[in-house]
Design brief:
Blueprint: E1 5-7, H1 15-24, E2 28-30, H2 38-45, H3 57-60, E3 61-66, E4 69-79, E5 91-101, E6 107-112
Parallel strand pairs: 1-2
Antiparallel strand pairs: 3-4, 4-5, 5-6
């Protein structure tokens, strides 16, 4: 399975899972960080997101309109370089979502995507 990218839900963000994926299967992984791993969640939340630029808005911002609303999602990525306890994790990505009501102009968000 070398070179494969494995994705899973937040339930699988465990040290044993990361070790198995990287050391045994030799794959890359993408796992969401949620509050089920409080320490890791706090470490990722504390990263310097405000200082991280969205380098290419064409690639990192998407917009979609439908059902009377316009949705914008913005992605930022940070190299971890040992900033978390998560084994083998090399990068964190944050996606934020904003929704604007096309009728009223009201903006809701930001929310993390699900």
């Amino acid at each position: 399975m070398t070179g494969v990218v494995v994705t899973a839900d937040a339930l699988h963000i465990q040290t044993d899972t990361a070790n198995y994926l990287v050391q045994e299967l030799h794959v890359h992984y993408v796992l969401p960080v949620k509050r089920n791993q409080k320490r890791l969640f706090d470490q990722v939340k504390a990263l310097p997101w405000a200082q991280t630029l969205t380098l290419n808005t064409t690639l990192n911002t998407t917009r979609h309109s439908g059902r009377g609303q316009a949705e914008t999602r913005t992605a930022k990525a940070i190299d971890l370089a040992g900033r978390t306890d998560s084994p083998h994790a090399v990068q964190a990505v944050r996606v934020r979502r904003y929704v604007r009501d096309l009728r009223t102009g009201e903006v809701r968000g930001p929310w993390p995507t699900r």
